[in-house]
C-alpha cells in the first residue's frame, strides 16, 4: 500500500512538472506571438531619415549597390568609418567629422546596410565590408586628393585594416578607435545555423525591433560610455536609423558572429603603414597584447583615460590632440 501511494506521488509530481512546463511554453509562445504582431502593426519601420552629418551627401555605385557618404572641408583627404552594431550610423563619428573639417577634406561613409546606403538582404562579411571600403577610396577619394588617412571605429577598424593589407596604395595611415584587440582572436567563423534562425522572416524583424527600442539602445550606449551619459542625440539617431526598411539585415550577421575576424592578428601583422590605436576602458573590445604592437616603429598605441568605447565623445579634446599630432607627421613620442 505504501509503495502504491509512493508511485502515485511520483506520477503526481511528474504531471505537475509537465503541466508547469506546458504552461510556461504556452506563455512564451503567446508572448513571442504577441510581440511579432505588435512589431508588424505598431512599430514604425520607415521613419524619415535625416542627415547624420553636415556638408554634402553623395552616392556612388558598387557591386550593384548604391552607397552613400558625406563630405566637407578642404585639405588632405581623411575618411571616417562608423562602427558596426545593431543601430550603427555615421552619427557615431560626428565629433571627429566636425573637428577635422577645419584642416582636412573629410569623408564619412555609410557602410552597406547602414545609413543612406542600401540595406539589401545579402551576405555580409568582413571581406565584403573591406571591399566596400576599398571601392570607396578608389572611386571617390583617390581621384580628388590621393591616398587617404582613414579613421575607423570599433569593428570597422578591422575591416579597414583588411582593406589596407589588400590595397595599401589607397592609404596614407590608419587610425583605429576601440578596435578588436589581437588578444581577442577567436577560432569561431560565425554560426550559420544561428544566422538562419535569426533570419527567419516570421520573427527576424520583430527580434530586431526588440533590440532597438529606445530603452535597449539607451542600455547599450550606457555600457559604451564610461564617464558621462551618452548624448540624447546619439540615441535618438540610432533609433531613427534602426527603423528603416531592411535595417535588420546586416545586424543579423553581427549577432550570429559572422562579422568576427578569426585572423585579425594576421591582418594587423601585415600593416606596414603608420598605425595609431586609440582606446579607453571598454567592456567589448579586448586590448591584451597591444604591448607587442607598441614596440613596432610604425605603431602608436594611446590609451584615453576617463573614456569607454567612444573616447571621441567623452574626451574629444584628448582625442583631437592625439589625432592632430599623429596626422601631422605620422609620429608620436615613444616612451
Task: Please give the domain count.
Answer: 1
Helix content: 40-55%
CATH architecture: 3-Layer(aba) Sandwich
**CATH T-level topology:** Rossmann fold
Mean pLDDT: 87
How would you explain this protein's 3D organization?
- With 335 residues, the protein is an alpha/beta fold.
- The protein has a single domain, classed as Rossmann fold, CATH 3.40.50.
- It has 13 helices and eight strands.
- The chain has helices spanning 2-42, 94-100, 126-145, 155-166, 192-198, 204-211, 214-224, 232-242, 249-255, 264-269, 290-294, 311-314, 316-329, and strands spanning 56-62, 65-72, 76-81, 104-109, 148-153, 171-177, 275-279, 299-303.
- The chain has an eight-stranded mixed β-sheet, sandwiched between helices.
- The radius of gyration is 23 Å and the shape is globular.
Amino acid at each position: 500500500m505504501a509503495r502504491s501511494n509512493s508511485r502515485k506521488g511520483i506520477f503526481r509530481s511528474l504531471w505537475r512538472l509537465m503541466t508547469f512546463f506546458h504552461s510556461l511554453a504556452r506563455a512564451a509562445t503567446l508572448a513571442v506571438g504577441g510581440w511579432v504582431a505588435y512589431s508588424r502593426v505598431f512599430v514604425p519601420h520607415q521613419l524619415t531619415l535625416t542627415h547624420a552629418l553636415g556638408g554634402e551627401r553623395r552616392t556612388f555605385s558598387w557591386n550593384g549597390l548604391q552607397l552613400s557618404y558625406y563630405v566637407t572641408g578642404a585639405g588632405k583627404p581623411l575618411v571616417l568609418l562608423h562602427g558596426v552594431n545593431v543601430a550603427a550610423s555615421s552619427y557615431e563619428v560626428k565629433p571627429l567629422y566636425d573637428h577635422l573639417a577645419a584642416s582636412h577634406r573629410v569623408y564619412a561613409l555609410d557602410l552597406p546596410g547602414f545609413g543612406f546606403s542600401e540595406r539589401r538582404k545579402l551576405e555580409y562579411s568582413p571581406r565584403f565590408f573591406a571591399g566596400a571600403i576599398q571601392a570607396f577610396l578608389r572611386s571617390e577619394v583617390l581621384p580628388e586628393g590621393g591616398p587617404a588617412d582613414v579613421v575607423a571605429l570599433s569593428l570597422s577598424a578591422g575591416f579597414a585594416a583588411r582593406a589596407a593589407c589588400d590595397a595599401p596604395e589607397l592609404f596614407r595611415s590608419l587610425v583605429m578607435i576601440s578596435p578588436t584587440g589581437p588578444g581577442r582572436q577567436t577560432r569561431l567563423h560565425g554560426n550559420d545555423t544561428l544566422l538562419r534562425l535569426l533570419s527567419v522572416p516570421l520573427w527576424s524583424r520583430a527580434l530586431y525591433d526588440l533590440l532597438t527600442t529606445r530603452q535597449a539602445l539607451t542600455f547599450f550606449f550606457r555600457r559604451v560610455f564610461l564617464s558621462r551619459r551618452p548624448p540624447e542625440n546619439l540615441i535618438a539617431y540610432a533609433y531613427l536609423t534602426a527603423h528603416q526598411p531592411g535595417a535588420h539585415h546586416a545586424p543579423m550577421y553581427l549577432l550570429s558572429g559572422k562579422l568576427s575576424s578569426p585572423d585579425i592578428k594576421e591582418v594587423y601583422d601585415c600593416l606596414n603603414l603608420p598605425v595609431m590605436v586609440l582606446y579607453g576602458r571598454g567592456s567589448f573590445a579586448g586590448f591584451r597584447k597591444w604591448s607587442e604592437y607598441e614596440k613596432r616603429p610604425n605603431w602608436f598605441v594611446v590609451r584615453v583615460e576617463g573614456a569607454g568605447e567612444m573616447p571621441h565623445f567623452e574626451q574629444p579634446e584628448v582625442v583631437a590632440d592625439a589625432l592632430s599630432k599623429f596626422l601631422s607627421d605620422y609620429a608620436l613620442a615613444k616612451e
